[in-house]
Amino acid sequence: MKTEPVSMSWEVLSxxxxxxxxxxxxxQAEELALSALEEAEEFEPGDRRLSITLECLSEIYxxxxxxxxxxxxxxxxxxxxxxTLGAEHMDTAIIAHNLAMLYHSWGKLQQAEPxxxxxxxxxxxxxxxxxxxxxxxxxxxxxxLYQMNRAAEAEQLRSSAVQISNGRFTRSGRWEAIxxxxx
Length: 183
Hints:
mainly alpha, about 180 residues, 8 helices, about 65% helix
């Protein structure tokens, strides 16, 4: 008698994704995240698990250099946050920065720039000009301006950018836009 494979719950998949990421097993993390996304798509509209899954999946694609797959996922997440939290919310700015880094790493500098600017505007307003996250963002944006042969603009920003991060995605960690699932 043949048995059907048992489907893992979203919670188990989510924990497994984090474990695979910790071990830097990105291919396994991607497969798990796609399964979690399939589960999350069936939840009620506004369920926070969808945004959590999309954040993980976009990070996984970024870490693997699969920018063509990551961009639509990250854009979807950005729209979701902008619609639910507003364009000026910090979580929206975090996702805009992640999308800018994705395009920047992909070599699509023209596409990256508006997302850097969008994120910089919000993060500066919310956190202030001297906050480490703002400095990191300025560092990424400045590096891109140099790559675009826009040294004068880069030099203007460079005086403000004293810290450059390791170029890793930042998770919003709040998912405030999303309603908690019913228990």
